[in-house]
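Morning run. Coffee first, then this:
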Amino acid sequence: MMIWMNGKLVDAQAATVSVFDHGLLYGDGVFEGIRVYSGRIFKSREHVTRLFDSARVIRLTIPYTPEQITEAMEQTIAANAIDDGYIRLVVTRGAGTLGISPAKCSHPATFIIADQIALYPPELYANGMHVIIASTMRCHPNTLSPRVKSLNYLNNIMAKLEAIDAGAPEAIMLNTEGMVSEATGDNIFIVRHGRLITPPVSAGVLEGITRQCVIDLAGEARVEPVEQNLTRYDLYTADECFLTGTAAEVIAVTRIDGRQIGDGKPGPITQRLTAAFHELVRREA
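And here it is:
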């Protein structure tokens, strides 16, 4: 496997960062997960824009232009002969001292991995998945905005551990006001009385690229998309529920905290939007 590392392709064993890198020591950095379909990077511009926006918020200067980053991703998928796969694009603060101050981090580290990913097994896409509502809350937006896709995922990881302990593949996180925010790695949607509802950005969610695709596709499919706050009650009484994310794509949720959602199968609007998303992928690829 070849990794794009600070401007050149190197063998995976040679792709290393310093133990003094603040991305490793403190989670100081940003990243993007990006899909490749039929050899083409899906929503490349949107992902690169979000990377640079995240970096700007944490005052991290990426040492490449958006065009150079895009070209580097193209080089990486070509070098690894990736036709359908996944890109992990990472920029760290770089090597510095053992203190948290980034002032002595002289140069950010940038690397790109192109590989395969399978977040959930095929049977969950066919039959739907069980999730729990975690006790671990999303960090308050005034600590660090969840719109920043940073390297520090410990908050999400603790909620994921709750899911694993409960025998579920995923967990839904609430914000500090008790409103539904998102899953540990995906955005959430419910269907209620024919309306498609997802939490607003103000609820502490990442502005997912796939989330926006589904909102756009819902309008085209004449399903009313609405952004509004949701509670546990709304999840438990939903007619349908599904998650969206770059790695997950679109996947139905059929049980929450052991409670059946709808008829316990992926619902008709979920299936319609899943098909529409796959058609969008085919068109763009």
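The helical segments are 22-26, 44-57, 66-79, 122-127, 154-165, 209-220, 232-236, 268-284. Good start to the day.
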